[in-house]
Recover the amino acids of this structure.
């Protein structure tokens, strides 16, 4: 695999601040290959956006190098850089009167002449970008008519039309609902594979990142940058350590973060698999330690009969039936939770 | 339509000339009325041409400012650019040991005209650079607008203090100038005026692509390879030339700069500056000629100050645009 972008000894921050340079993070040494999708993760305020802005040439670095396809970006002009790297930022487009097509065609700016007229190649590239993101139905709308999800897709299309080997995205899934988040991430995943572009996105969606990223770049508050495949980061417990806070723990078995509940009573649950899973979640939320392997004095059996869920609760000789998890848990709360 | 407005504007006034006769005279037909001929070529045509130049220059200057500041309420008169130009003019008019009124300066001929243009453009450029500097630190549009208005107020008060220590004749001349007048430009000055404005308009037109890129915001513009600093300087330069020239020759004319760009976006339904700049030219011309026609109060002997009419006509347009689109953002 060819290296698309390489960062060496890069220190990011604000080099021209009044009282001297303020370093946000670094030195960073890292690289990305063609066709890779990288998720840049890290707690708030760790410098993800600063790193992306520095890579995009919007912000100067304190020291170190960034090179794209062996071109040092500090040695080429803005105009040249625009042919190597495109961005999707969190900045909102204020000009709502632009049509989607006009917006996408602005992606061709680095290639058009002094007056910005689109040539044959430009139009073909724009069409190619639109075909890739499948937004044909949006092309003639104005920006202010779009939903957040549609707008984000349009911005990705604009970046594609810019036809650069590297695309940077700053939290492209922020403000989107789950289906739209998955849609955008799936789109980026496919674009990286099919167009061989190197795509770097910063995000707070840990679970999505774990599922789709080829590599994760993890910035920590201790000014360290971990890079590797998501699974390695999980197995080496780097993931858990970085994000664990009081009251939250990383469940290494399932790859999800869980809210820690004070466990005070044990209960045994058996029955329908799906039913057991969700009953367990509800009971854990209410402070029970749930087991399905060892019999305990308190027992719950979940079953589905004639499309109707049923919960049987038994303790000693007592046995009660419930028709919903809500009924079950409110009974347990009322009872006091303790055997 | 421009021609219709033009011939109407030429025909109306204290001496009425039928529109058909106006066209005849313009095309070069012999006319029985030698006086009409004189009125048209000596007075009305320079006046109408100044209206066209002022209208298109202010409209394009306003368009550039709105895009540069990402602010739908920006315009030469709103952000204090015109006030800055006034300061420049006041400096020339009210200072000087002798009675250097605008009329005596004009009698200086070509040199005097350049003096006024340069002074008012410098004044405009100064205020504009100041506001731009502040805009680096303030990302908030409304704050920027308020600061622009405050800078405008400061320049106006500096001028007031100056007036306080000036001769009454000077003050009266300056006051007349602030009312705005399209009639004060003589045929000889018209040459300089049109040269400067046309240069400014051509420069503005060549920056269409940069202006379009700026629509996405400065970060995106940077990422698309725009040299932000050069573009800013270029835009300030052209806007100052355009607004400064008009203010120097015709006085501070309000509302054309802010209203016409919105009208152009509304009428042509686009944000593309390659279309908007010519659109502003046409609409600016039309509206300024229209204002001039109204200012001459057809059927009467009086001519109202043009500034009163542009505000009277311009303010409802701005209000209408805001109400129609519910907010200016969607029309910007």
């Amino acid at each position: 695999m060819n290296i698309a972008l390489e960062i060496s000894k890069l220190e990011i921050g604000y080099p021209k601040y009044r009282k001297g340079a303020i370093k946000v993070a670094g030195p960073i040494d890292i690289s990305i290959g063609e066709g890779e999708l990288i998720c840049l993760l890290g707690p708030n305020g760790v410098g993800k956006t600063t790193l992306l802005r520095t890579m995009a040439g919007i912000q100067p670095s304190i020291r170190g190098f960034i090179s794209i396809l062996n071109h040092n970006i500090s040695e080429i002009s803005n105009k040249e850089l625009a042919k190597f790297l495109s961005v999707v930022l969190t900045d909102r487009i204020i000009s709502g009167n632009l049509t989607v097509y006009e917006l996408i065609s602005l992606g061709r700016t680095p290639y058009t002449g002094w007056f910005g007229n689109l040539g044959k190649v430009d139009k073909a590239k724009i069409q190619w970008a639109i075909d890739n993101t499948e937004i044909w139905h949006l092309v003639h709308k104005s920006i202010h008519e779009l939903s957040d999800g549609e707008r984000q897709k349009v911005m990705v299309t604009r970046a594609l039309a810019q036809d650069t080997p590297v695309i940077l995205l700053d939290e492209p899934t922020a403000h989107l609902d789950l289906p739209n988040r998955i849609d955008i991430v799936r789109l980026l995943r496919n674009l990286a594979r099919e167009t061989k572009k190197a795509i770097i996105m910063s995000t707070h969606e840990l679970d999505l990142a774990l599922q789709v990223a080829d590599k994760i770049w993890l910035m920590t508050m201790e000014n360290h940058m971990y890079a590797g495949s998501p699974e390695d980061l999980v197995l080496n417990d780097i993931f858990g350590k970085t994000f664990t806070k009081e009251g939250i723990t990383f469940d290494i078995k399932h790859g999800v973060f869980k809210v820690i509940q004070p466990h005070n009573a044990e209960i045994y649950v058996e029955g329908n698999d799906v039913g057991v899973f969700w009953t367990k979640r509800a009971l854990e939320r209410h402070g029970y330690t749930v087991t399905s392997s060892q019999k305990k004095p308190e027992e719950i059996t979940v079953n589905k009969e004639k499309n109707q869920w049923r919960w049987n609760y038994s303790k000693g000789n007592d046995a009660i039936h419930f028709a919903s998890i809500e009924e079950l848990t409110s009974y347990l709360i009322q009872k006091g939770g303790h055997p | 339509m421009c021609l219709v407005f033009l011939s109407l504007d030429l025909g109306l006034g204290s001496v009425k000339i039928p529109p058909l006769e106006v066209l005849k005279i313009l095309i070069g037909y012999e006319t029985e009325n030698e006086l009409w001929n004189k009125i048209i070529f000596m007075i009305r045509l320079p006046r109408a041409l100044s209206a066209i130049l002022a209208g298109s220059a202010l409209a394009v200057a306003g368009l550039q400012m709105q895009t540069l500041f990402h602010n739908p309420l920006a315009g030469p008169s709103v952000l204090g650019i015109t006030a800055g130009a006034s300061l420049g003019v006041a400096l020339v008019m009210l200072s000087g040991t002798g009675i250097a009124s605008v009329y005596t300066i004009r009698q200086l001929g070509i040199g005097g005209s350049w003096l006024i243009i340069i002074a008012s453009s410098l004044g405009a450029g100064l205020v504009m650079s100041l506001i731009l500097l502040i805009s680096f630190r303030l990302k908030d549009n409304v704050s920027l607008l308020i600061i622009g208005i405050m800078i405008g107020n400061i320049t106006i008060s500096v001028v007031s203090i100056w007036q306080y220590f000036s001769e009454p004749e000077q003050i009266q001349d300056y006051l007349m100038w602030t009312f705005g007048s399209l009639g004060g430009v003589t045929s000889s000055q018209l040459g300089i005026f049109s040269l400067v404005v046309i240069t400014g308009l051509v420069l503005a037109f060549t920056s269409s692509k940069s202006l379009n890129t700026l629509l996405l915001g400065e970060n995106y513009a940077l990422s698309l390879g725009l040299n932000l600093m050069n573009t800013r300087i270029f835009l300030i330069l052209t806007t100052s030339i355009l607004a400064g020239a008009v203010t120097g020759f015709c006085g501070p004319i309000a509302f054309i700069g802010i209203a016409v760009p919105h009208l152009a976006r509304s009428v042509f339904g686009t944000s593309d500056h390659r279309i908007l700049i010519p659109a502003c030219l046409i609409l600016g011309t039309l509206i300024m000629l229209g204002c001039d026609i109204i200012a001459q109060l057809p059927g009467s002997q009086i001519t109202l100050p043009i500034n009163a009419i542009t505000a009277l006509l311009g303010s409802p347009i701005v209000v209408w645009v805001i109400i129609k689109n519910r907010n200016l953002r969607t029309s910007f």
About this structure: The radius of gyration of chain B is 20 Å. The domain at 2-331 of chain B is CATH 1.10.3470.10 (ABC transporter involved in vitamin B12 uptake, BtuC). Chain B has one domain: 2-331.
